[in-house]
Amino acid sequence: MATNHQFPDDFKCPISLEIMSDPVILSSGHTFDRVSIQRWLDAGHRTCPITKLPLPENPSLIPNHALRSLISNFALVSPPKPQPYPEPQALISRLTSVSSSLDSKLNSLDQLTKLSKRDSAFRRKITESGAVSAVLNCIGSSENPILQEKSLSLLLNLSLDDDNKVGLVAEGAIGRVVESLQTGSADSRAVAATILTSLAVVEVNKATIGEFPYAISALVSLLREGKVRERKEAATALYALCSYPDNRRRAAQCGAVPILVGIADSGIERAIEVLGLLGKSKEGREAMERVNGLVRVLVRVLKNGSSRGVEYALLTLSSLCCYSEEMCVEARREGVLEICMGLVEDENENENEKIKRKASSLVEVLRGNHS
């Protein structure tokens, strides 16, 4: 039985302070439990217990059906008692056991993924229980694509904590993730790209992932072949990895530039951000110079893109124009100088100061005043 303090005060009788079982309305407009107000009236009182205003000699008691219904249907929501963590070892053993059915493995993965999603303590408990190798084995299994997808989702959760990122790489996560990028379902490939983004938060992992055979080329393939979600995740992973200089060269050599220009033209602005980073490398700039229509795509972003998109379009154009007079000529022909001057002179207080600085710098380059 629910205790009184768990119910709203409006459900309690003003006389007895108990939950009303038969609420009735007095002529004063106030509601009482029938038993309590009848007792008050039987004692000879002819005033409202709350307002003290006089009542008729024979006061009528009108059933408050709406309140009675609310009370009877009230869903009691009490704070959940803290539950002890379920021991992950039993769930993990189902993943490793050769006698476990596919349904049993999928159920274990569902539970582990749900429990680890927002709870870093439980994520730590999973990794300390030796779950990673079992999860990686499931990812590498060709038994069922759903098993791979669910295993990748759990691995993504485990990668959220910085303390786990290097350890996961040491246990061989990159190899399994890259395999999924190459051969997995669309969902598996998207999650695999997201895992690489998460692991690349740690600087040392950026180099390790970049050096791993086929890691960057698999992301470039996903850029080329994937649907919108997979392309966005692949571009985000490349952006995270290409803050490390050697990976810019690798991405350019894998043919990322023309694909990025194409998907940037389709409206995926993250591609512009990756181009901004690739433009810092010689290989990236040379690849961009070979792409017909690149400047027109960047101009469209300057005119219609978000602040971040504009910022990275300016960065890309500056990198290109600083090293190539041909790109300067094309940029001037496409109206980049006038656009940049408009950005510099914009008196809108909300205009991004970083954009204004980059636009001002590009104006100097296009006018030939840069050293």
From TrEMBL:
<dbReference type="InterPro" id="IPR058678">
    <property type="entry name" value="ARM_PUB"/>
</dbReference>
<keyword id="KW-0833">Ubl conjugation pathway</keyword>
<keyword id="KW-0677">Repeat</keyword>
<dbReference type="InterPro" id="IPR003613">
    <property type="entry name" value="Ubox_domain"/>
</dbReference>
<comment type="pathway">
    <text>Protein modification; protein ubiquitination.</text>
</comment>
<dbReference type="InterPro" id="IPR011989">
    <property type="entry name" value="ARM-like"/>
</dbReference>
<dbReference type="InterPro" id="IPR013083">
    <property type="entry name" value="Znf_RING/FYVE/PHD"/>
</dbReference>
<protein>
    <recommendedName>
        <fullName>RING-type E3 ubiquitin transferase</fullName>
        <ecNumber>2.3.2.27</ecNumber>
    </recommendedName>
</protein>
<keyword id="KW-0808">Transferase</keyword>
<dbReference type="InterPro" id="IPR016024">
    <property type="entry name" value="ARM-type_fold"/>
</dbReference>
<dbReference type="GO" id="GO:0061630">
    <property type="term" value="F:ubiquitin protein ligase activity"/>
</dbReference>
<feature type="domain" description="U-box">
    <location>
        <begin position="6"/>
        <end position="81"/>
    </location>
</feature>
<dbReference type="InterPro" id="IPR045210">
    <property type="entry name" value="RING-Ubox_PUB"/>
</dbReference>
<dbReference type="InterPro" id="IPR000225">
    <property type="entry name" value="Armadillo"/>
</dbReference>
<dbReference type="Pfam" id="PF25598">
    <property type="entry name" value="ARM_PUB"/>
</dbReference>
<dbReference type="Pfam" id="PF04564">
    <property type="entry name" value="U-box"/>
</dbReference>
<dbReference type="GO" id="GO:0016567">
    <property type="term" value="P:protein ubiquitination"/>
</dbReference>
